[in-house]
Write a structure and sequence with these properties.
This protein is α/β, with parallel strands linked by helices and 295 residues long. The chain contains twelve helices and eight strands.
């Protein structure tokens, strides 16, 4: 059973889940993607009971049950702020012990930001369909353009998100992130993820989400990636329709020693479209880059 905790951090509300109670070892932090839920990781972490220590899923700032402070605006939504808030939550969860950060999409971006601004808290980083520059494509790029077009576009953006607040509709919409749609819907974990995430999705603060879609196209930490000195794995589907796959190559090119894992024919949802390969590659990399093996 997972354990939900809420932290008040710099007037932000941040939600966390302990995914595997009773496990000892190095802590692991899972960070979800844009508009997603901290419950999205519930099925992923427990597959590595012997490799991973206590696993925590942490909500991105502004993502329910997290909430921005009153009066928060787009000028405050920066990589530094995201890293600061997450770092303070991580420090409370791990008592300051360095953790492995595993982030999907915007969660991958956020994990890299924490490693840049708070390296003392980071042992390893896994970026899954992540990025350093937040100009998206496909449906996510369409949403960015909507919000950035003005008030009418933002209203349409919110209406689109409100229109899929049912299980079957949200499940159907997941195809916009996939390249291998048949594989996506063959995986029974998709249903578990959608059911677990739906309540949080329905409670999203759409004003907060609009801020992310407004700000991310102009957000870029590429020039800071060289500051990361811990082991990094960038995992990417070569047909990702929403985050340019080139972003994984950018990450690897700018971080010394970083490794790249490319999933042929897969899209944004690697762990669901290519579950066996994803688990094998991630497990092997974590084992090779364990504290013991790294000296």
């Amino acid at each position: 059973m997972t354990e939900l905790r809420l932290f008040e951090i710099d007037d932000h509300k941040i939600g966390t889940l302990l995914l595997n109670p009773g496990v000892q070892g190095e802590p692991v932090i899972f960070l979800h993607g844009i508009t997603a839920s901290l419950h999205a990781w519930v099925g992923s972490s427990v597959k590595f009971p012997e490799t991973l220590g206590p696993c925590y899923s942490v909500s991105l700032p502004g993502h329910y049950p997290a909430a921005f402070p009153e009066g928060f605006n787009t000028n405050m939504l920066t990589p530094e702020m995201i890293a600061e808030v997450l770092a303070k939550a991580i420090r409370q969860l791990t008592s300051g012990k360095p953790a492995t950060l595993i982030g999907h999409s915007t969660g991958g971006f956020s994990a890299l930001a924490v490693a840049i601004y708070h390296p003392e808290l980071v042992r390893r980083v896994v970026s899954v369909s992540g990025f350093a520059q937040g100009r998206w494509t496909g449906a996510l790029g369409f949403y960015q353009n909507l919000v950035r077009s003005g008030a009418t576009g933002t209203t349409i953006f919110k209406s689109l998100f409100r229109s899929v607040r049912r299980y079957r509709l949200l499940r159907a919409v997941m195809r916009i992130y996939a390249a291998d749609v048949p594989a996506l819907y063959r995986n029974p974990e998709l249903d578990d993820m959608v059911r677990a995430s739906l309540p949080d999705f329905c409670s999203l603060d759409l004003d907060a989400m609009a801020m992310y879609f407004q700000v991310m196209p102009n957000t870029d930490i590429t020039h800071l990636l060289h500051k990361i000195s811990v082991p990094v794995l960038a995992m990417v589907g070569d047909r990702d329709p929403t985050v340019p796959p080139e972003q994984a190559h950018v990450i690897v090119e700018h971080i010394q020693g970083a490794e790249l894992a490319v999933f042929n024919g897969a899209g944004h949802l690697i762990s669901t479209e290519r579950p066996e390969d994803y688990q094998t590659i991630l497990s092997k990399w974590l084992a090779q880059n364990s504290w013991k093996n790294s000296g």
